[in-house]
Structure of Branched-chain-amino-acid aminotransferase:
Amino acid sequence: MVNNIPVEKAKTSKIHNVDFDNLAFGTTYTDHMLVSDFNDGEWSAPKIIPYQPVTLEPSSKIFHYGQSIFEGLKAYKDEQGSVWLFRPMENFKRLNKSAKRLAIPELPESHFIDGLTALLRLEQDWVPQNPGSSLYVRPFMFASGTGFHASPADKYKFIIALAPSGAYFSGKVKVLIEEKYSRAANGGVGYAKAGGNYAGQFYPTQLAAEKGYQQVIWTDDNNHEFIEEAGAMNVFVRINDTLITAPTNDRILDGITRKSILDIAKDEGIDTEVRKVSVKEVVDAAKNGSLKEMFGAGTAAVVSPIAAFGYKDVDYELPELGDSYASKLKKRITDIQYNRAEDKFGWRYKVV
Amino acid sequence: MVNNIPVEKAKTSKIHNVDFDNLAFGTTYTDHMLVSDFNDGEWSAPKIIPYQPVTLEPSSKIFHYGQSIFEGLKAYKDEQGSVWLFRPMENFKRLNKSAKRLAIPELPESHFIDGLTALLRLEQDWVPQNPGSSLYVRPFMFASGTGFHASPADKYKFIIALAPSGAYFSGKVKVLIEEKYSRAANGGVGYAKAGGNYAGQFYPTQLAAEKGYQQVIWTDDNNHEFIEEAGAMNVFVRINDTLITAPTNDRILDGITRKSILDIAKDEGIDTEVRKVSVKEVVDAAKNGSLKEMFGAGTAAVVSPIAAFGYKDVDYELPELGDSYASKLKKRITDIQYNRAEDKFGWRYKVV
């Protein structure tokens, strides 16, 4: 229960050092964090302690065998000062899906939901009210148990840390459709929010950045024929007036923003299709003018319009639309998140 | 230079608490470790300090984005008490290959080779002399820099830790040829010793263990048609008198034991083939009696004979051979490693 979670209060607060008008993404942390340890076969009762470093043995398996998973969600403050989460149960369920695939013990629901609620109530002053800002919530779990044998650890740590944050991307994004590297294997861990899925993307993303692209759009690892996701976000394509995104599978993250955007789009009367999207289809549509929009969708990225994509050394510019799906859908979803509109889907969760 | 590496000595030694006759694999650590930190664009001069915990911010990227790589090698003590490494430059080169793919800054050669030599000279009493035992050497590198933005860290830590160890596998190994899950994607990080590659194998390996198998033999993620590697080791198949192993590629680790075994086998006059091996070929060979042996090869596993493999709910037993390639090749390679035989390939590296 939320009120039963013990709190060890920080002696002083750092909040007065923070410039809430100029927040970067995920670089400032609040005064407290929630922790629970898996030991002797069970997760300990969660507790809130001052935000502090973690001390680990050099043989802790997190350093060697990559057992780490995370979630990302945001807390939003409305004009009345109430604090809201967006579909937190979806994050909880996905955390445990990731845990299972990485052979990490699953977390009890109350540790997540009650723990998060208690932590956010304590830290509610840290939720920014500035437009576009929010309190980014980072639940994560990793192997703290030791040993050089390549097998699952016997001890794990679960932490929720909070970071008041501004926008993830600034401005429109230029992306590269990948032809060589891959993010995930069939039968692999691509659908999990596993640390290793991110590290593998950095080098190809650096190569893309050297050519002027901010993100890579990953394609299937067999033939690089179909568009999958963009690592930090799922990808939507609008051809004529139809909004299309790839189906989730064991390579593609089941994004909460992705599925919410699909529901909102249907509610808006937009024709949506969840099906494989080939690179050829997108390139052909760009050439013949039927490609109207591309955008990414994710908790951190919200809805990020794509200005242009590169493929086989050619850049394809997307048109500038006055009344884009991206802007309409972004407004709808953020209005729900910030409690500025009716919550007809029942997605908001009131923290305080 | 080896002698210039500063040493902060441990106040007491733990060596007298260690039962060198009953060593597990990688669970006991020596008194000291080597550390170097990447900061402001360069790796600091390595130093030797007492083996001790590592303290990290909760926002350190190792916990979130999986930037971690490692190496594994062994130090062997001969009958005269001299300590040897086996092809350590190969580990150094592979560490930097892994680093590059994971967007981790590459390490200078002297940090690795001189650092390792200095550490092993200091800890030489920890190298076991018992048959089958050795001092397992674990160089590893991970992102210590902070931030929730999914991008490479700006700070990293390199550590070499040492663990006197017995055998990785006890007895013969029963393996399962995987039909559903995969270890690596084309264009992915399978060839790197990245932490995330291991975490992804644990759950399928647990499922295999529930059916009585100790290891999974991974197959390609497209059709599960070809044998790749076994996660903790590369795989060799002997059909009639020909020894076959898969070529390395971006999904398969370029094992140092693997390539040494190939060289030794050729030197022994054994017919070797490096080519794709289909599951069908192995199953057919098992059925018609031409499959004589299967074994794994890796630093930890050395040469581990496979007693049986499972595929599509059928177990295929391998014959018990009096004079197997596995036993012959294991003797040749360990005789070189422990300085019991001529080193015609120039693989040994004398530490002290």
Q: What stands out?
A: The helical segments of chain B are 62-65, 88-101, 109-122, 195-210, 256-267, 279-288, 325-337. Residues 211 and 277 of chain B are 24 Å apart (CA to CA).
